[in-house]
Amino acid sequence: MASSSDYSTVQNPTVTLNNGAKMPVLGLGTWKGKPGEVESSVQIALRVGYRHIDCAKAYQNQSGLGQALQELYKEGKVSRKDFWLTTKLWNTDHAEVRKNCLESMKELQTEYLDLYLVHWPVTPHKGPALTPSMKDTWQQMEKLVEEGLVKSIGISNFSVKKIEDLLQYAKIKPAVNQVELHPYFRNEKLHKYCDSKGIHLTAYSPLGTPDSAAMQNRGDQTPHLMSDPAVKKIADKHGKHTAPVLIRWAIQNGTSVIPKATGVSHIQGNLEALNFELSKDEFETISNLKTQMRMLVGAEWTDPAGPYKNVIELWDGEVPEENLRLLKERDAKNSSDTPGEL
Q1: Percent of the chain with pLDDT strictly greater than 90
Q2: pLDDT in tens, 142-191
Q3: How far is CA 84 from CA 51, 223, 252, in A?
Q4: End-to-end distance of the chain based on CA atoms, in angstroms?
Q5: Which backbone phi and psi does 166 adopt, to 5 degrees?
Q6: DSSP 108-151
Q7: What is the DSSP string of 313-336?
Q8: What is the distance between the alpha carbons of residues 61 and 306, in angstroms, rounded to a whole number?
Q9: DSSP strand E in the chain: where?
Q10: Distance between CA 174 and CA 96 in Å, rounded?
């Protein structure tokens, strides 16, 4: 890592997407970032060598992030063309994709987006069918590319079935599917399918979302990936914290990865994932950890009226056995006929 004043450069490998765009494999996630915290984190990240920032309208941080970027540009070391910027279309905005894309760009103070994702295959309307339809939403997304507002478009939280449906009418194939993926939920069926279709996977929650138990009201029933003995043993062998080991696993697993980080030491520490490799045996050990469960189940997007009556319908059956067990326990406890919040 070579420094220039308080700036550093790192060799951050890129992945070539199906449209030829090159995206850095390690980015900074901003989900759950507090006001003021996100702005500082993004500035630190770009100074120490990150060249990929992931955000979303739903995170309510775009305006602050845009201002932070403007302040950074004035220092003369980083310009907009030097880094990859992703944001996402929120569930309430599918009827007016262009309008909401432009609003995000205005908040971010950018003339283009490198990647714009449909955040969830969800809209606020209840009933038997998704309204507006995903076909309508995707055709609006395609127009953003044709207009030059967005360089790449993609999806997030889409199952194999939902991608298959989308590919039936898509003129522009999704470049990326951003999903939960980590050693405790390897999402292998989806990963294999996306690889076969040339759709790149970006892993969110790569550290297993340590606070998901409280977020999903699971009490103490959530295993903690960062405390897994096998992962800690490998980390100790490399003289690393568990975080860069898990990030390294994601990269060697063929995904890009967007861990959230705050503070100089945490942000720089995650960059250590770029300066070592896991051996074949270490990679296989982590790739065969027994625990498999979604930490973020999406129950908040289900409703008895539809279009997704339960999480099994939301994910088209891509729900691990451990999640199903917990769902059954919760259903029995609540004397409910419909799987509810996990």
Answers
A1: 84
A2: 999 999 999 999 999 999 999 999 999 999 999 999 999 999 999 999 99
A3: 6, 33, 21
A4: 43
A5: -65, -40
A6: HT-S-EEEEEE--S--S--SSS-SS-HHHHHHHHHHHHHHTSEE
A7: HHTTT---HHHHHHHHHHHHHHT-
A8: 30
A9: 2-4, 7-9, 14-16, 22-24, 28-29, 52-54, 84-89, 113-118, 150-156, 176-180, 200-204, 256-257
A10: 19
Let me know: does 213 contact 190? Beta carbons within 8 Å: no
- Mean pLDDT estimate for the chain: 92
pTM: 0.93
Q: What is the DSSP letter of 210?
A: T
> Nearest to residue 89, comparing CAs of 121, 60, 118, 112?
118
Angle at 305 between CA 310 and CA 311, to 5 degrees: 10
Q: Would the pLDDT of 342 be above 70?
A: no
In this structure, the dihedral spanned by the alpha carbons of residues 164, 165, 169 and 174, taken in order and rounded to 10 degrees, is -50
Catalytic option among 7, 50, 59, 193 = 59
Quote the pLDDT of residue 335. 56
What does DSSP say about strands 14-16 and 22-24: parallel, antiparallel, or unpaired? antiparallel
Bridge partners, residue 88, by sequence: 117
State the residue for tokens 């189940």. 297
Contact 225, 208 (CB under 8 A): yes
Residue 59 falls in the annotated catalytic set: yes
Find residue 9's DSSP bridge partners.
Answer: 2
- Beta strand 150-156 with 113-118: parallel, antiparallel or unpaired? parallel
